[in-house]
């Protein structure tokens, strides 16, 4: 119903209330006020989810101290659960609690999971000796895993409910407003995703802690948890304005029952004497009507095309795992600002906002003008191919990164460093190895472990974590020195001794050196990302030795692979959903939505299998492996698409509707003939048994 007064923007709508059973709703500019709460709820929830997910793999690597492979495995296990649980959420909402209660209850579970994640990231809880390292890492791992499990159940469970619940707020005559709502709803998802992937990495990079200052993962998880609390409160506040439809049964359950009955019925009638039927689903005709069976056939035809699609998602979702880990070994200095490795994920939503209109208004019209038949299935094929190219680009970047990494010693080797602090050259012999060092010269040599009996000072054997720079000092001065950089200290370094490594962030660092007499001197040094330096202090001046060079490959080199992946996503994902909906019966679009989400879950499971099974020594080789697998799957899908015949579900359903009266007439005619035969048999039985008394068992009477 339109506004009761043309000059008023706010009114109460009760249009078709008696027919639809919907309550009066406050409207603003023709839109139910209740959708405001739903849009805000979705924005906060998406901010919460993507914000937490943006820093998750780095939390595994740097806080829980897991290696890259195990961090990737757990990350993709979590994502897979997030896309498996929507099926459970849809069944609960449609068959038991209804959409409103499902959203509220699972949002509480979701919020609890986010809070537990934030608490589990506080290292001071178990840091009894106040050294900055948790004493009981098992406790933090347990909290993190419980939190992630609750988040997966919550975010996945409400995923199929929120958008549908928003659609329920509109009357039948508000199709235009409903369409606009879904556009705004999708915009809120992307806005939440974009802002969170910018903000939470910044929060993570802050220093916080009670005993020691470290990367602030509690804040990075705490803010998404707070947004989830806001999301839940906003949604509950609007409760009195919502149209809440009662559960009416889940179509997915009905489809599964139909398929199961057809399989079992075919199994029980597997005798060669029983006539075969045109399609195996036709064995469900004894229990289900022909229209439902025809609809299930259409759905299964599309689901069959879904089989190769998980491979695309296996590559796509590695933006948050492998690609983020790749960025940790790159230079994030963009001049006026420094980009954190996990912030590179923002390139994807930014490019989506650009690429969607570019594809719709430029690329597709140009292809159409060239008179090329760019069908939906061909678009999906191109999208998969672009994703494969993105991983080829990632492999090329990785090769450049590997060329800049130091050659660390193997497990059977020992790296030895010698510093000549005397005013003459010296000769050094270590087993069969012999070398000469000039005054103040530093020599680095790779020898077998058994040839070096004593190692006084150990070098770093891996790139410094989180883009920091590992710095240490060798005191060749004649007295004890105390050295500080900012709030960090190297402690008192006695003469002819080496300090421990201290992590210094990217940027300009000022070192202050104080001797036992109280004299001080200071010097500044500019650092990049991931370098390692040993500063040698001879009696007269400071000499630096570069152990590991700073990251020299710029993060901007990741943009081409993000561009290719996002282009593939726009062509693949948007077209895939559009194709699925066009080929699905009107009442079974939710089934295909569940199937589509299932392909995402399976794709993440594929990553788990490859990450654990493929023992490739180089990361670039793994990228090439994934690209090759996707190209292979792309070829298989192209062949399947070639033999696919497009259908019109609306026309098929209309044809069945026209056939129903004829079927009903045949059914009535058969029943009439059956009744006539039964009546004739009854008359014969009565005449032949006239005068006799019969006792009918009570069981038959009942």
TrEMBL record:
Mind telling me which PROSITE patterns this protein's record contains?
Answer: PTR2_1 (PS01022), PTR2_2 (PS01023)
Q: What's the chief localization of this chain?
A: membrane
What GO terms are given for molecular function?
Answer: symporter activity
Superkingdom, according to UniProt? Answer: Eukaryota
Report any one BP term from Gene Ontology.
protein transport
Q: According to its UniProt record, where is this protein located?
A: Membrane
An example Gene Ontology cellular component term from the record? membrane
Region Disordered: list its residue ranges: 667-690
> Which terms are listed as keywords in the entry?
Membrane, Peptide transport, Protein transport, Symport, Transmembrane, Transmembrane helix, Transport
Which Pfam families does this UniProt record tie to the protein?
PTR2 (PF00854)
Residues crossing the lipid bilayer are: 25-41, 76-97, 103-125, 137-158, 184-204, 216-237, 298-316, 350-368, 380-401, 590-611, 623-644
Q: How does it sit in the membrane?
A: Multi-pass membrane protein
Family classification: Belongs to the major facilitator superfamily. Proton-dependent oligopeptide transporter (POT/PTR) (TC 2.A.17) family.
Q: What is this protein called?
A: Solute carrier family 15 member 1b
Q: Which organism is it from?
A: Xiphophorus maculatus
């Amino acid at each position: 119903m339109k506004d009761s007064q043309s000059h008023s923007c706010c009114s109460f709508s009760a249009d078709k209330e008696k027919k639809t059973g919907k309550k009066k709703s406050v409207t603003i500019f023709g839109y139910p006020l209740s959708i405001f709460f739903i849009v805000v709820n979705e924005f906060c929830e998406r901010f919460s989810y993507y914000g937490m997910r943006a820093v998750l793999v780095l939390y595994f690597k740097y806080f829980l101290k897991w290696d890259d492979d195990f961090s990737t495995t757990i990350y993709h296990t979590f994502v897979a659960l997030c896309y498996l649980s929507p099926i459970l959420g849809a069944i609960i909402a449609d068959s038991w609690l209804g959409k409103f209660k499902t959203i509220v209850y699972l949002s509480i579970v979701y919020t609890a999971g986010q809070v537990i994640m934030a608490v589990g990231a506080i290292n001071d809880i178990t840091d009894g000796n106040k050294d900055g390292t948790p004493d009981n890492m098992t406790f933090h791992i347990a909290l993190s895993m419980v939190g992630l499990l609750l988040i997966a159940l919550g975010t996945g469970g409400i995923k199929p409910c929120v958008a549908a619940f928003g659609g329920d707020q509109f009357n039948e005559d508000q199709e235009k407003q409903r369409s606009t709502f879904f556009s705004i709803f999708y915009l809120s998802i992307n806005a939440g995703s974009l802002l969170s992937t910018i903000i939470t990495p910044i929060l993570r990079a802050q220093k916080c802690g009670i005993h020691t200052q470290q990367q602030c993962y509690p804040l990075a998880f705490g803010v998404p948890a707070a947004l989830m609390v806001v999301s839940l409160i906003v949604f509950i506040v609007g409760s009195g304005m919502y149209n809440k439809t009662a559960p009416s049964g889940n179509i997915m359950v009905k489809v599964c029952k139909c398929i199961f009955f057809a399989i079992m019925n075919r199994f029980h009638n597997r005798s060669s004497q029983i006539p075969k039927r045109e399609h195996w689903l036709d064995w469900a005709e004894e229990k289900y009507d022909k229209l439902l069976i025809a609809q299930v056939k259409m759905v299964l035809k599309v689901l069959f095309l879904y089989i190769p699609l998980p491979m695309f998602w296996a590559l796509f979702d590695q933006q948050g795992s492998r690609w983020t880990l790749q960025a940790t070994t790159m230079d994030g200095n963009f001049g006026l600002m420094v980009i954190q490795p996990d912030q590179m994920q923002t390139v994807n939503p930014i490019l989506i906002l650009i690429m969607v209109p570019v594809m719709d208004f430029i690329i597709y019209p140009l292809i159409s003008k060239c008179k090329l038949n760019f069908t939906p299935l061909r678009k999906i094929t191109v999208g998969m191919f672009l994703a494969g190219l993105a991983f080829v680009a990632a492999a090329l970047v990785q090769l450049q990164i590997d060329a800049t990494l130091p050659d660390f010693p193997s497990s059977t080797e020992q790296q030895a460093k010698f510093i000549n602090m005397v005013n003459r050259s010296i000769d050094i012999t270590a087993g069969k190895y012999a070398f000469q060092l000039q005054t103040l010269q530093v020599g680095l040599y790779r020898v077998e472990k058994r040839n070096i009996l004593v190692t006084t000072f150990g070098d770093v054997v891996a790139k410094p974590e989180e883009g920091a720079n590992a710095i240490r000092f060798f005191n060749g001065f004649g007295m004890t020195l105390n050295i500080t950089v900012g709030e960090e200290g190297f402690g008192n370094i006695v003469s002819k001794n080496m300090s421990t490594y201290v992590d210094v962030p990217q940027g300009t660092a000022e070192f202050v050196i104080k001797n036992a007499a109280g004299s001080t001197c200071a010097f500044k040094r500019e650092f990049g990302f991931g370098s390692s330096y040993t500063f040698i202090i001879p009696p007269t001046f400071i000499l630096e030795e570069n152990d590991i060079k700073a990251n020299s490959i710029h993060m901007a080199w990741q943009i081409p692979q993000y561009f290719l992946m996002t282009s593939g996503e726009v062509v693949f994902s948007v077209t895939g959903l559009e194709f699925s909906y066009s080929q699905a019966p009107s009442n079974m679009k939710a089934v295909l939505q569940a199937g589509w989400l299932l392909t995402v879950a399976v794709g993440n499971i594929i990553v788990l299998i490859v990450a654990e099974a493929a023992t490739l020594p180089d990361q670039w080789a793994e990228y090439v492996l994934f690209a090759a697998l996707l190209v292979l799957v792309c070829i298989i899908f192209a062949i399947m698409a070639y033999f696919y015949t497009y259908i019109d579900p609306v026309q098929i359903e209309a044809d069945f509707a026209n056939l129903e009266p004829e079927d009903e007439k045949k059914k009535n005619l058969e029943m009439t003939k059956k009744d006539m035969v039964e009546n004739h048999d009854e008359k014969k039985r009565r005449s032949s048994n006239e005068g006799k008394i019969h006792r009918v068992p009570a069981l038959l009477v009942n």
